[in-house]
């Protein structure tokens, strides 16, 4: 063998040994972590992401997405046991690079610890104060339903895509609570807001969304590479700018004794805590919390309604029974109300089945344990802020 060839072989062997030693170190020291497939160097188990590859490990297993260690809980029993029976231990938020880039640890969805507790408590209290779960929000929904029906009537029985009108209607409910007003369906700013939201959802749902996911594994590299993740970040910044404009408008007309909506309530809380240097009630948390509420209140409900229509089209016999119960209990001369629910068991069951059937968020939002946690026969360790140990929950 020539010297050059021997040198090449030697280097290949050395690099291979280093890579596999790195992989071995990653797998060792895992303590009593759930079992899982052997991870490849650098890419982890990224090329093995298929449920058939993981079935043999049961409902709790460990994988590596690049260098990101993930404990996956699969199925209703495992998820319930973690999120409900051991809710405190699993209440941490797993860190994802893309979420950190977007939210920077602010807001409700991707914050942690005391910040999350304070913002979540404030949001729940404020939403209740503005009608969530009360008669007043039912009236807002009934009013918006009338606008939606008129919009559908204007199609004059021609084929149409229900995505936009359903999204507008659902979004207006949360907008009335967060921003203080509903928007006209033809309002240009509202249309832009909905388009940005839909574009981001489509990016995450599509194959291009896989490129966005790579950001979580190689954030430094992806920052310098063009692609759909850059569009996602650009759209998110435009959404932030929209909310910032609304906040400025609210500041100019704020009445400390009479909050009109979530933004007003947050601004008043900021005023009350302005002497507290450690307060979580600041502009960045206001912007992100408002966006979190808007996106959460717009996306999941409108998508569920859309899938519900599709499912009823596929099962016309079910649709006919629902229609019959609606006509019998509600009729066609008044709007439905929550009091009707107890008299409509079949429709109620169909709605629950649609929610079970529709896989809105396939892997859920990443969680992290708040301390070393015993789960079944395993131990999921808490890790330092520099490391990442996310638990992704899927539905069975």
TrEMBL record:
<dbReference type="GO" id="GO:0005506">
    <property type="term" value="F:iron ion binding"/>
</dbReference>
<keyword id="KW-0349">Heme</keyword>
<feature type="transmembrane region" description="Helical">
    <location>
        <begin position="6"/>
        <end position="24"/>
    </location>
</feature>
<dbReference type="GO" id="GO:0016712">
    <property type="term" value="F:oxidoreductase activity, acting on paired donors, with incorporation or reduction of molecular oxygen, reduced flavin or flavoprotein as one donor, and incorporation of one atom of oxygen"/>
</dbReference>
<keyword id="KW-0812">Transmembrane</keyword>
<dbReference type="Pfam" id="PF00067">
    <property type="entry name" value="p450"/>
</dbReference>
<keyword id="KW-0503">Monooxygenase</keyword>
<keyword id="KW-0256">Endoplasmic reticulum</keyword>
<keyword id="KW-1133">Transmembrane helix</keyword>
<keyword id="KW-0560">Oxidoreductase</keyword>
<keyword id="KW-0472">Membrane</keyword>
<dbReference type="GO" id="GO:0006805">
    <property type="term" value="P:xenobiotic metabolic process"/>
</dbReference>
<dbReference type="GO" id="GO:0008392">
    <property type="term" value="F:arachidonate epoxygenase activity"/>
</dbReference>
<dbReference type="InterPro" id="IPR002401">
    <property type="entry name" value="Cyt_P450_E_grp-I"/>
</dbReference>
<dbReference type="InterPro" id="IPR050182">
    <property type="entry name" value="Cytochrome_P450_fam2"/>
</dbReference>
<comment type="similarity">
    <text>Belongs to the cytochrome P450 family.</text>
</comment>
<protein>
    <recommendedName>
        <fullName>unspecific monooxygenase</fullName>
        <ecNumber>1.14.14.1</ecNumber>
    </recommendedName>
</protein>
<dbReference type="InterPro" id="IPR001128">
    <property type="entry name" value="Cyt_P450"/>
</dbReference>
<dbReference type="InterPro" id="IPR036396">
    <property type="entry name" value="Cyt_P450_sf"/>
</dbReference>
<keyword id="KW-0492">Microsome</keyword>
<dbReference type="GO" id="GO:0020037">
    <property type="term" value="F:heme binding"/>
</dbReference>
<dbReference type="GO" id="GO:0019373">
    <property type="term" value="P:epoxygenase P450 pathway"/>
</dbReference>
<dbReference type="GO" id="GO:0005789">
    <property type="term" value="C:endoplasmic reticulum membrane"/>
</dbReference>
<keyword id="KW-0408">Iron</keyword>
<keyword id="KW-0479">Metal-binding</keyword>
